[in-house]
Amino acid sequence: MDAQSTPPLRDAWYYALPSERLKKGDMVPKNLLGEPVIIGRDKEGKAFALVDICPHRGIPLRFGKFDGCEIECCYHGWRFAPSGVCTDIPTLIDEQKPELTKVKVRSYPVQEVQGGIWIFFGDKPETAPPVPVLPGLEGHEPKMVVTMMFDGSIDHSVVGLVDPAHATFIHKAWFWRSPKSIRNKAKKFAPSPFGFTMVRHPPSANSRAYKLLNFLLGKPEGTEIVFQLPGVRYEHIRVGGHIMCHLTTLTPITEFETEINHSVFWTAPILTLLRPLFWPFARTFLRQDRDVISQQQEGLKHNPQLLLLGDPDVQARWYFRLKNEFVRAQEENRPFVNPIKERTLQWRS
Ligand code: FES
Ligand SMILES: [Fe+2]
């Protein structure tokens, strides 16, 4: 990890996988927060997550078999239920079988919300920032999810995500905005649970994406951007009686690699027709963010003193304050107190 970053937060829910990538009877191995995890879906459709290590002799369970009910370890055939409890040790004679319920693979709490599988890392789910529920999209699943790996810590990835000043220089694609369109912006922010919100406002007049929405669905009524710990941001747009929402989640894979999942939801059927067009746009956009984060690593290796300056960097400073407060509240065993105060921020973008 670079010297400017601190370890990923524990006692938090992290986005693990889009629901559609985990079919009944599947198990998907994944490294998350430096831990080997196996994410599965039983034949009833319930998702679960276990440490991907057999408690017998430590081989990863992913090399075994899952029949939709139990995982069988490849090495000596020990069997485990999705809860992690051992159900059979076929190589022992009956008289030698221990109380099997005492043999367990550690399991993680899992929630599946709006087409995303979230896994809890830590001990106290009660005090954790809740898994976000996108307003007006209850029961909806994303219409597309783009996944990409960033070559940086979750801290630098979050700072990149909430940074309003880079768009003009990094996201220069013709379909997004003209590089000449930089102008003064003033946006009002308010504290929100475990984070902050850019309160609902008319969308940027210099964004071509908004112009397209305007053309297809009518005048956008307003957009709101919510950030919450540990690394969740969503932009919620109301337009012509419909909703469009971009949910971006950051999940630490290791201390210096972060997976980003960008899920896009919409309720207007006409947008579904345009999905083949959105796909390359979303990928281009995320690639631009990924490339700049990986270039940044070259400088960070030398441990420079960084300069977070003025209103464009206030959201980055807020992120670090929120993260510090969350850690301190855990250490002091007290409730989290949101340190953010309502404020208008100004910048040029
Ligand atoms: S290592 Fe898994 S059953 Fe032996
Ligand atoms: Fe970006």
TrEMBL record:
Superkingdom in the source lineage: Bacteria
Pfam families listed in its UniProt record: Rieske
One MF annotation (Gene Ontology) recorded for this entry: 2 iron, 2 sulfur cluster binding
Keywords tagged on the record: 2Fe-2S, Iron, Iron-sulfur, Metal-binding, Oxidoreductase
Keyword Membrane (UniProt): no
Domain Rieske: from-to ranges: 14-119
Keyword NAD: no
Database matches in InterPro entries: Cholesterol_7-desaturase, Rieske_2Fe-2S, Rieske_2Fe-2S_sf
Gene3D superfamilies: Naphthalene 1,2-dioxygenase Alpha Subunit, Chain A, domain 1, Rieske [2Fe-2S] iron-sulphur domain
PROSITE patterns membership: RIESKE
Protein name per the record: (2Fe-2S)-binding protein
